[in-house]
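job 3f2a | input accepted
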Amino acid sequence: MTTSTATAGRGTAFEEPTQPAKRSYVTWLLLAQLVFFIALLGPAIVGIGIKIQSFVDAGVIDQNGATGAAAVLGGFGALFATIANVVFGRLSDRTTSRLGRRRVWIVAGTVIMTVAFTIMALAPDLLVATIGWSLAQLGANMALAPFIATIADQVPKFQRGKVTAALGISQNVGILGGTYVAQAFQDQLVIMFVGPAILAIVVMVIFAVVLPDRRLPVAPPRATLRDWAETFWVSPRKHPDYALAWWSRFLITFASFGFTTFRFFYLLNHVEAPEADIPAIISTSVLIYTVALIGASYFAGWLSDRIGRRKVFV
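job 3f2a | predicted structure (314 res):
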């Protein structure tokens, strides 16, 4: 999965916001991020391991094949997440619906994610589980790319560091909440996968209603196949700052999710933790680094707005 960067502002006819973002928008932005990440990251951090281990216990795969199964499932999910994030980010920039550019994708993506989690929770084998997880990543990033793009739409530059820092805090608290939900319902996979996702639909609908989304006044020129291909490529020679930002984010995310994907089986096979205790161990470790992340995110966001600098914090 991915934490989403959209093509915010590309091809739009709107000026940069200059007034502080509406309090109702910021409030529901943070709440929606919190609930969405509870729904998405509980299954990602704990649920995938439990699901694959259930295949082992049922004799569908052997224990030696569990890490390989996690790699297959996680790899296809990451592929779908990458494509969906870019495609639906740009589609939302170009959307001319009377409902606005972002709303329809945010709600539709969350619904697709919920349906896909149902498929995954009920999957009898690795193939169906991989299909479910891939569709869940497609739906999640269909929602996340336009969701994050609303920051560029609604938040002025002088407020952006503070708002994005608060969003990062909501995201990480949501990750923590997701691990506790997974721990509580580790023996009830349908509730673990589907229950929080249904709540995410409710919160995303409220966010969509509160969002002062605007309709494009003029339809953008029709995109060619070359235009869509170029969505996936920015020349590092022409845009070195973008390339450095992309690679730094890619490597941080790679390191984080490379660990997250295999943490369940590392604890099981190498630390030799009892299978039933692993969700609680993961929850405790996530709690520790969430406390550190909240403090660092808030301070860095506040200070970067005060001094008008970003790179030094990166």
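job 3f2a | Residues 2-12 have pLDDT under 50 and may be disordered.
job 3f2a | closed
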